[in-house]
Design goal:
alpha/beta; 8 helices
C-alpha cells in the first residue's frame, strides 16, 4: 500500500481529527472563484470533507474525486442528500474526465501527493478559461505555545518514532504554477489555533500517514508516551496554525 492510500483505513478517525480551514480562507476563495449556483467546482481528494462544506453550500455544482474507497463512502454518507453533490472513487492521476471542465479546481493538503507536472498540467486542462486553481494546506507550530511539553514530546519521538514507511516530502513546488501556464499566482495566509486534550492529541497524531506505520512494540510505547506527556502537562496541548491558500488563474 502506498502512503497516499493509507488514510482510507481510518475513515472515522480521519473525519474526527483532521483539521478544517478557517471561514476567512473560504470567504476569500469563494469570492475569488465567484462560486455559486451555475458555477462548478472539482475537489481533488476530499478525504471526509475537511474542505467541502463551504464550497458545497454555495450551491455550485460540486464534484469530487477520491482515491480511497472507504473515504468515498464516508463522503456519500455525509453529503449524498445534496442535489449538487457528486463524487467518483478513482485516482486523479489516471482518471479520464472526458470533456468536463470546471470554474474551480481545488485541493486541501492533497495535491502534493501528485507529481508536480501531472498536477499542474491536468488541473490546467480541467479548468475553464479564467477558472481558478486553489491549493490549501496547514503549517503547524507545536513548539511556540507548549514550552517544556514540546521538549518532552521530542524525547518520545526520539525514542519510539520508528515507522516502517517514512514519509519523504516530494518538495511540491506550489509557486511553480506559472511555469505551466497559470497567471496571477498569489499566496495568502491565515492564523488559527487548535487545543487538544491527551486523548484527542493521540487521535490526531494517529492520522499522520507515517505514524500509522509504526510497528509494535514501538507503536504502543510511542502513542502511550505522547498521551502521558500531555496528561502530565495539564491535559492540554495547543497548535498554532498558519493556513496557506495558493491561488492562480487559467488565462481567458
Amino acid at each position: 500500500m502506498e502512503l497516499r492510500e493509507i488514510f482510507d483505513t481510518i475513515p472515522q478517525q480521519f473525519d474526527r481529527y483532521r483539521p478544517r480551514y478557517s471561514p476567512e480562507l473560504f470567504r476569500d476563495l469563494i469570492a475569488y472563484a465567484k462560486l455559486g449556483p451555475g458555477r462548478s467546482a472539482l475537489e481533488i481528494g476530499p478525504g471526509t470533507g475537511q474542505a467541502t462544506d463551504p464550497v458545497l453550500n454555495t450551491g455550485c455544482d460540486y464534484y469530487a474525486i477520491e482515491l480511497g474507497e472507504n473515504l468515498t463512502e464516508k463522503m456519500r454518507e455525509k453529503y449524498g442528500a445534496y442535489p449538487n453533490f457528486s463524487i467518483v472513487h478513482d485516482d486523479f492521476i489516471t482518471h479520464d474526465f472526458g470533456e468536463r471542465q470546471f470554474d474551480l479546481v481545488y485541493s486541501a493538503a492533497t495535491i502534493q501527493w501528485i507529481p508536480e507536472e501531472i498536477a499542474f498540467c491536468k488541473t490546467y486542462m480541467l479548468l475553464k478559461p479564467g477558472g481558478t486553481l486553489a491549493m490549501m494546506l496547514t503549517r503547524e507550530d507545536l513548539k511556540a505555545a507548549n514550552g517544556q511539553l514540546y521538549d518532552r514530546i521530542q524525547q518520545v519521538y526520539s525514542q519510539h518514532f520508528k515507522p516502517d514507511i517514512p514519509y519523504i516530502q516530494r518538495g511540491f513546488g506550489y509557486e511553480n504554477a506559472p511555469r505551466y501556464g497559470f497567471m496571477d499566482f498569489e499566496k495568502r495566509e491565515y492564523r488559527d489555533s487548535r487545543v487538544f486534550n491527551a486523548e484527542e492529541y493521540v487521535g490526531y497524531c494517529g492520522t499522520h500517514c507515517d505514524h500509522m506505520t509504526i510497528p509494535e512494540p514501538h507503536r504502543s510505547r510511542f502513542f502511550g508516551g505522547l498521551h502521558q506527556a500531555v496528561l502530565e502537562a495539564g491535559d492540554r496541548i495547543v497548535y498554532q496554525d498558519t493556513l496557506v491558500l495558493y491561488l492562480a488563474r487559467k488565462p481567458v
